[in-house]
Amino acid sequence: MTLLGISGSPRRGGNSEEVLFSFLEGAAKKGCETEFIRLNELNFHPCQACDRCRDTGKCVIKDDMQLLYPKVATCDGLILSTPIFFGTISAQLKMFIDRFQCWWHAKYRLNRPFISSAEERPSFFICVGALKKKEYCESAEKAVEVFFNVVNLKSQGSLCFRGYDAKGSIGDDPQNLKKAFLCGEVFARKIVKSDGGSP
Ligand SMILES: Cc1cc2nc3c(=O)[nH]c(=O)nc-3n(C[C@H](O)[C@H](O)[C@H](O)COP(=O)(O)O)c2cc1C
Fold first, then answer.
1. CB 139 within 8 A of CB 95
2. What is the DSSP letter of 30?
3. What span, in angstroms and rounded, lies between the C-alpha atoms of 157 and 35?
4. Which of 79, 86, 124, 189 is 20–30 Å from 142 (CA)?
5. Is 8 contained in some domain?
6. At CA 34, angle to CA 31 and CA 37, rounded to 5?
7. Nearest-CA neighbor of 100 among 158, 140, 137, 152?
8. CA–CA distance from 146 to each of 22, 39, 79, 104, 182 (Å)?
């Protein structure tokens, strides 16, 4: 069982990544294999709305997203993490999400989704912002919820931490990372169960 953790932060080892790492550690403790990807280190472009994917469900842009499509299609669970930037998700994560417009066509026009909704494959969302504004997290959650729906991943919930700005400050309250670790453990159990194995 492979769990794919994708970070949308430009800050290596920043707050949202720390939360993601703890989550993945929790899942690994319960037997999941984990893979971590930092979008900021990939070479990819925003969706060009060229619509050349409408009859195939496949994006024609030849960049690093071509490595990510099969990973998302085959992972057993997907975790997305992002800092809050200007009241919503980072540009890196938005670019990643928009590039799944081809999957929108695959699902709604071609009736050939890359992931079957019947599988109920689990997903989870993590965000960290400096300000204690609930609306920012809600805005970020909304964007990611639309993505999870389009690609047929079933959201198991989210962890949104507010009030953390400086790099590493998320660890000032040790219960934050502990909570992420526990969420990872719970998430892993979900994967093991949906796979038919024993928890
Ligand atoms: C370009 C930019 C925009 C930001 N906008 C917001 C914002 O709108 N609301 C907020 O609460 N924090 C905002 N922040 C602060 C980050 O969300 C905060 O520092 C967070 O901890 C960064 O997470 P990271 O270390 O995972 O990148 C912004 C930071 C940057 C660099």
1. no
2. T
3. 20
4. 189
5. yes
6. 170
7. 152
8. 25, 19, 15, 11, 26
| Beta bridge partners of residue 161, listed in sequence order | 128
Residue 71 is assigned to a structural domain of this protein: yes
pTM: 0.96
pLDDT tens digits for range 160-197? 999 999 999 999 999 999 999 999 999 999 886 655 54
In short, whether 103's Cβ falls inside 6 Å of ligand 1 is no
Question: If you average pLDDT over residues 126-142, what whole number do you get?
Answer: 97
Q: Which two tokens stand for residue 2?
A: 């492979």
- CATH number of the domain where residue 152 is located: 3.40.50.360
Contacts of 86 (CB under 8 A, 6+ apart): none
Q: Structurally, how many domains does the chain consist of?
A: 1
Domain extent at residue 184 = 2-194
What is the torsional sign of CA 81, 87, 92, 96? positive
Does residue 46 lie in a domain region? yes
CA distance linking residue 169 with residue 167, whole number of Å: 6
92 lines ligand 1 (CB under 6 A): no
Report which residue type is found at 142.
Answer: K
Does the CB atom of residue 8 touch ligand 1 within 6 A?
Answer: no
Distance 177 CA to ligand 1 centre (A): 18
Q: How many CA atoms lie within 13 A of 43 on its CB side?
A: 2
| Structural contact between residues 47 and 101, judged by C-beta atoms closer than 8 angstroms | yes
Q: Residue 144 belongs to what H/E stretch?
A: helix 134-150
